[in-house]
Amino acid sequence: MEQDLIRERYDLSMARIRDFLTEETVPEVYRDYFKKVTELIIQCGEVLKAKEDGSLDKMTLEEGRALNQKLYADVLAGAYETSYANPAYAVQTLGEEYGKLLSYLYAEVRADIVYAFEGRVLDLVIGNEAMIEIYNLFEGEALPAAVVASEVRSLAQRSGAAAKEIKDVLYWSASDYCDVTLTYRVREGVDPTLDFAKKIIMESDLSDLSYLYRFGEYISPEEEKMAAFLNSLPEEEIRKMADTYTDGYIRGFEVMGRDLAKKKTAAIRYPVGMERMVRQAVKNFEAAGLSVIFPRGAVGSINRNPAGRGGYTSSSPNRQYDYDHRYDSAVYMDKAFRDRKIGVLKTAYEQYKEDAAVYAGPAVIETFGETGFEPVNKPEAWAFTEKQQNLYLEYRNLSMPVVNEYIPGDETSFTIIAFPVPAIGEKFPEIFQETIRINTLDYELYRDMQQKIIDVLDTAKYVEVIGKGENRTNMQVQLAALSDPEKQTKFENCVADVNIPLGEVFTSPKLAGTNGILNVGTVYIGDIQYRNLLMEFQDGRVVSAVCDNFEKDGTVDFEAGHRLIVQGIMNGHEVLPLGEFAIGTNTTAYAMAEKFGILDRLPILIVEKMGPHFAVGDTCYSWSEDSPMYNPDGKEMIARDNEVSILRKEDVSKAYFGVHTDITIPYKELERISAVREDGTKVDLILDGRFVLAGLDELNRPLGEE
Question: DSSP secondary-structure letter at 312?
Answer without folding.
Answer: B
